[in-house]
Amino acid sequence: MKILTTSQMRQVEQECAKIGLPPSVLMENAGKAVAEEVRRILGTIDQQHILILIGPGNNGGDGLVAARHLHDWGAKVSLYLFSQRTPDDPNFNLVQERGITCVEVTQDEGLDRLDELLSSANAVIDAMFGTGKSRPLRGIFLQALDRVSRAKKRQPDVHIIALDLPSGLNADTGAVDPACLYADNTITLGFPKPGLLNPPGAERAGKVTVADIGIPTYLAEQVNKEVTNSDWAKLFLPERPLEANKGSFGRVLVVAGSINYIGAAYLACSGALRVGAGLVTLATAHSLQPILASKLTEVTYLPLPESAPGIISPEAARLIHQELSHYNVLLLGCGLGQSQSAIRFIQAALLRLKLEPPPLVLDADALNTLAKTPKWWQQLTDNAILTPHPGEMARLTGLPIDKIQSDRAGIAKRMAVEWHKIIVLKGAYTVIAAPDGQSRISPIANPGLASGGTGDVLSGVITGLVAQGLSLFDAAACGVFLHGEAGEMVKARLGDAGMIASDLLPELPLVIKQLKEG
What we know:
By secondary structure, the chain is α/β, with parallel strands linked by helices. It folds into two domains: 6-223, Rossmann fold (3-Layer(aba) Sandwich), CATH 3.40.50.10260; 230-236 and 245-517, Ribokinase (UDP-N-acetylmuramoyl-L-alanine:D-glutamate ligase, 3-Layer(aba) Sandwich). It has 20 helices and 19 strands. The chain has a ten-stranded mixed β-sheet with strand order 8-19-18-17-16-15-14-9-10-11, sandwiched between helices. The longest helix has 23 residues, at 472-494. The mean pLDDT is 95.
């Protein structure tokens, strides 16, 4: 599903008008779609008191249409208007014909009526500004949102729903006005907006759903930023022919682990196996091989020479180079550590290749080593996926972490183009960016995934998909989706506290199974 900026959305709406979908039709579609989603969110709405904050522009118009439908379905609807609607406003006239309670802010000195309506509301719908407000919230708007926030603290069960965007959230960047509400749900119209998938806006939006308002999808086909979803991921799952053998599903070489990070090797290899890779070989320090063999019974091994117990020697790079031609993909970096020996090994393995290597997936200590190497991207093959978390991305770019987090999609896209590599910027709403300008964003933010080892699983998942023939960009995006959905399954079963990386492994085949079964 495409992600549209404010200007792109405006352009699409202009194109709609040219094909017989004027703003009045889109507003009717939007209001009804919002009402239907509100009904789904709240369950039965008969006699529930729903307060709708009606702004002065089109967002307010959408709210008026939603109010009419909710009223007709049995809800007790009240409207709080922040400006007078014009006499020829058909949606306001239809609301008045139904006798729906309307309170104008100009008639509510001290906001006493607003407080009264809030005290009896089961749900509050923010239809004040949507994408149309970029200036700071001031005056009566600031005061009203403050009253809603205070009411929510007094009555935690009051459900706050934002129409298109929480007012005060920048649709393009995710920047928020301090008065912006923390919505339980945001019903965004037509297409997702970037600000809903970037902090801090994502934190204010709550659960985001996209309402179909009748815009033909082909009008946005030129947009190169998308959000991953199950319909998309299903198209890219590797085929599993009945006559297959293990060679049909690719050969993976994983170079991982050190004396302090033995588990990283286990998690990375298991991630590749659990998404269907045919054969996985673990290249690790010689003394660690017996330990890992007791845990990883399905992989083969390439024991590597050591410079110290559990630390791979730089001399091992020659052995890796000799073996590369036998594999479809190389994953390197998980748990290798940052000893001088490990750094020299990583540099030799990655930057002194005489022949074109198979595709690379680089994580963790491979990235930390590259960050210490001037102009590393000019020495590294372009046939590579990098999977940094924000701290590693900061080291690779030289930018502060808060700068990266403030523009995750923009920075990932810019660096993918500059470095000529696929970038997977991990974290809440993981961004996948390609050198050709394409990008995808995961809709998942799961605090349960913020624990050691989950990134190793993700690297293994992506590697396993590359081995099975997916392009680097599709493997990265599909891997992020499968990993995120596995996390959601664990969260549904265990909650988001106490989830550990190995919990994801048995869920991965189940995610794939569910996708295939529709």
